[in-house]
Amino acid sequence: MSSSGIAHIGAALGGIALLRYSLGTSLIFAIALSLPPGPSPWPVVGNTFQIPMKHAWLVYSEWAKTYGDIIYLNALGQRLVVINSTNIAKDLLDKRSSIYSNRPRTTMAGELCGYGEVSGFRQHDDIWKRQRRMMSHALNQSSLSDHYAIQEIEAQRLVLNVLNNPDSLVHQTKLRIGSIILHVVYGYAAKSENDPFLVKPLKMLDNFVEATVPGAWLVDIIPPLKYIPKWVPGAGFQKIAASWRQLLWESAWEPYLWCKANYENGTDNRSFIATNLAVHESNLSSKDEETLVWGAITVMGGGLDTNMSTVLTFFLAMLRYPEIQVKACAEIDTVIGADRLPSITDRLALSYIRALITEVYRWNPAVPLGIPHSVTQDDTYEGMYIPEGSIIMPNVWHMLHDPEIYPEPMAFKPERYKDDAEMQNVTDLSFGFGRRACPGMHFAQGTIFAIIATVLATCEILPALDPQGNEIIPKVAYTSGAIIFPEEFKCRLKCRSSQARALLTQAANSTT
Ligand code: HEM
């Protein structure tokens, strides 16, 4: 029997596991190890019905008071380990990244809908490694400044358009962030928010969220159901999966083929795709081409919702903390003045804005439970047994709300950071762990800075008014899901001066 086989029998025997070690070829012995603590499982179904469906990061954070920093759950055989401590997350996901860098397999999303091809959800295999190399080439620190112009101009367009129509905040954020990423990945300029190159990946991401809702798809619980043909009554999930797979394919291949055709016609650009085509002089094998296409769509998918969530959280924070907005504007006025708009190269000189942005990442992180990893072999940690195949969820929200490190954690306070090292502790957690850590981290920070600094330099963010003229201060309430958004709120934007409007108009209408 394999070591994991023995261990699993142990797990069934009331949380005590037997782990077998082998020294050389012959010496084998067993020690007793316990699984991490967690809520008592029910017979047969285990913890299936205890796993929170909504705002899980808050529930796991509450559970930390009872079970501690590492919690074990078992839902019908699928093991889940929630980590509530920064040190444990780093010990496992960073230091033992050779075995903690897989992604969980899912039948509905991964196999039937095809998301298992997309590099962000791919297993930790050779194709994924090649895709990561391609991404880091396009998004590494030394090529970041190549993207400043597009990040700044789209930020200026966003602010000008929201200034003219504050109700368009969500649409504009989506459109402008999507445009930046389309430009960087494919060299494509989005025509409007209805542009299919933008609409399709956005819908494809919504489908992904639905396809990964825990417990929503019977086929995830009983995988052999995947062999049932579409026409069998009750196999509606097969039709849904087929249409979602088709959309995923179109989202990935259509912009790629557009970029490739342009490249072959000599319309050069410095996009992620064109740069990779140039390396191979456009003669990619079909396998290499697939590697590139699925890597590219991950960049698109990884950057859209996360950036959007962060920008919307910034607006929410400014509505609730006007005094911080005043301080941030004052820093921009002092350092930049009124004669020009901020640029990404001003970041070093704007320490309060850097602290404010860090506080946005901490206050309500876009990905509060990270993107789950999974472990490829049995492991032990501080006397606890972590079975092979366990899904590992770092509760980043909890780590970033530790009152020992962040006193009054629910308050939005940029002043809490004494220096850049303290700020980096926040970004290190918000952008994930180990080999799967976000490859777009530095690029994303450029986009976020461009948007936030441009808004603060040119506008006052004010609460919307009710029919009686009273200010409506939005609640701090968030959606559930892997990537979270503030619940819908309204705001007004007032231009800080006619000069600011003139600068914005001129900049937003120029071409990159
Ligand atoms: C504020 C913005 C962003 C945040 C908070 C964020 C956060 C994250 C997190 C938490 C992960 C999972 C890391 C892990 O598994 O431990 C991730 C993965 C990823 N992110 Fe980001 N991200 C952001 C923006 C971006 C941007 C702009 C891009 C691309 C241009 C990007 C591309 C990716 C990709 C490709 C992955 C998958 C990595 C893999 O599985 O190997 N992200 N991101």
From TrEMBL:
InterPro entries: Cyt_P450 (IPR001128), Cyt_P450_CS (IPR017972), Cyt_P450_E_grp-I (IPR002401), Cyt_P450_sf (IPR036396), Cytochrome_P450_fung (IPR050364)
Family: Belongs to the cytochrome P450 family.
Subcellular location, record wording: Membrane
Main localization category: membrane
Any one GO molecular function term: heme binding
Record protein name field: Cytochrome P450
GO-annotated cellular components: membrane
SUPFAM superfamilies: Cytochrome P450
Residues that hold heme according to the record: 438
Alphabetically ordered keywords of this record: Heme, Iron, Membrane, Metal-binding, Monooxygenase, Oxidoreductase, Transmembrane, Transmembrane helix
Cofactor: heme
Membrane topology of the entry: Single-pass membrane protein
Source organism phylogeny: Eukaryota, Fungi, Dikarya, Basidiomycota, Agaricomycotina
Organism from which the protein derives: Wolfiporia cocos (strain MD-104) (Brown rot fungus)
Pfam families per the UniProt record, alphabetical: p450
Involved pathway(s): Secondary metabolite biosynthesis
Organism superkingdom: Eukaryota
